[in-house]
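Quick one: structure tokens for this chain, please?
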Amino acid sequence: MTLDRRHELLDLCRRNQILIIEDSAYTELYFGESVLPSLYSLAQGQGVLKVGSFSKIIATGLRVGWVQARNDFIQAISRVKFDMGASPLLLYALAKYLESEKLESHIDKMRAMYAKKCDVLCNSLETHCSEYVKFRRPQGGFFLWVECVGPTASEVVREAASEGLLFPAGAIFFLSGSDDDDSHVRLAFSGASVEELAEVGPRLKSVFQRALGEVATDSDGG
């Protein structure tokens, strides 16, 4: 979201007394030199709750998040919080780690690692699948949003499973499900190795070729 759009959103919500909950789970994992200011910082904490996750920036599986908000909001949240059984030992260790001031350097390493993985995946797709996919290189995060050219996303997902490539169709990320979209898939580059990501392009190319062959066969049979 551009800076102008952020200001417009804040103004709209302020005029209509709408509380914004800003999801910042991936905000720190940007690949460029800088990142736009958060809604929370632009609003100086007025009318915005900013939430994030240590699972994305420290270690997957922590299942511990955080909230940044005005003190009155924090007090209200504290009265109704439910921690889902988080380990006190884990929380204590996390607190000590944050106090060590090592988090920023760790996040820098995470940014560099994920940026490299993203580039490897995108390069592999551009080299081997340019006629089958369309996408824009993400500026951060864990995922690549890919448009399928030819077969539907459902067909690609089904055929990819037989190739050992597991990823979801984009429809599950829409409010109304598959009725809204069956042309996109979401590829994750966070957990795979660089070597595995380099092989996605040629493997996915064969997936598209088989899927298109199935479509042609069905059409001929009709």
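The chain has two domains: 3-100, 105-221.
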